[in-house]
Each structure stands twice: as C-alpha cells, then as structure tokens.
C-alpha cells in the first residue's frame, strides 16, 4: 500500500455558463436539433458562439496587442514565482482564457510575486491564494 499516490484532481477544461432564451428561439433551436443539423442544444450554441467569435478575430487580435494580454492557457508554478521573487520582479498577469496558479503555491509566495491579475475567462487557484490576492484581482 505504500506505493499508492494521490493523483492531482483533474481541472475542468471548460466553464459552464447559463443563458436565458425566449421560447421562440428555443423552439427554433430544438427544430434544428430535431432535423439533425446539430446533435443537441449545446452543440448549436457552441457553434454559434465560435462563429461569432471568428467574425471578430481581427478586433480580438488588435485588443490583445493593445492590452498586452496572453491568449489561451497560462500556468504559474512555484518555480516560476520563486524565480521572479529571487530576481526582485513582480508579475502582472493579463490573460484571455485560463490562468492557473498551481495548488502548491502558497499565499505568501503569491503576494510576494503577483502585483495584479486581469483574467478574461477563468482563474484557477486555491481559495487561500485567491483570498490573499483579492485586492489585486481585477
């Protein structure tokens, strides 16, 4: 039994959102699903959102450049933050997508190295780290 190790909890790969739709729009969605255009309501909604986002690709790219934000997934480990601390530097997180602060990052290390956090999407960090950085999360 000494060789049993706890596996890290699997992080979700997406975020749930809730929307309200009128009955007519919902009926039209159900009709398209029934006719086989989409496998279910969520499939149609995801496709519609992706198509809309694709139509704004240029605007998003320009905005990312203007705000110097990273697009996608960005992980911050203990080693990353310790290197910043040792160099006397502060991190200003700007992410469009998912920013993850590893579970083994202590609140103290986070406060020493993270000056601000702006995430358009989702931030995953321990409750303690989020609490320690509450005044720096925008």
TrEMBL record:
Which GO BP terms sit in this record? regulation of DNA-templated transcription
Question: Organism's domain of life?
Answer: Bacteria
Please name the SUPFAM superfamilies in this protein's record.
Ribbon-helix-helix (SSF47598)
Q: Which CDD domains match?
A: RHH_NikR_HicB-like
Enumerate the PANTHER family for this protein: BLL4998 PROTEIN (PTHR36215)
Q: What is this protein called?
A: CopG family transcriptional regulator
> What is the native source organism of this protein?
Leisingera caerulea
Write the lineage as a comma-separated list.
Answer: Bacteria, Pseudomonadati, Pseudomonadota, Alphaproteobacteria, Rhodobacterales
């Amino acid at each position: 039994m000494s060789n049993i190790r706890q596996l890290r909890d699997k992080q979700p790969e997406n975020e749930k959102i809730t929307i309200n739709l009128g009955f007519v729009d919902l009926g039209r969605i159900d009709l398209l699903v029934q006719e086989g255009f989409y496998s279910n309501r969520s499939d149609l909604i995801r496709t519609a959102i992706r198509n809309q986002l694709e139509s704004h690709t240029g605007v998003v790219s320009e905005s990312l450049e203007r705000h110097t934000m990273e697009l996608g997934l960005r992980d911050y480990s203990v080693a990353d933050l310790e290197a910043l601390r040792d160099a006397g530097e502060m991190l200003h997180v700007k992410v469009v997508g998912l920013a993850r602060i590893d579970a083994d990052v202590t609140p103290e290390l986070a406060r020493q190295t993270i000056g601000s956090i702006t995430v358009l999407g989702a931030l995953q960090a321990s409750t303690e780290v989020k609490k320690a950085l509450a005044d720096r999360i925008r």
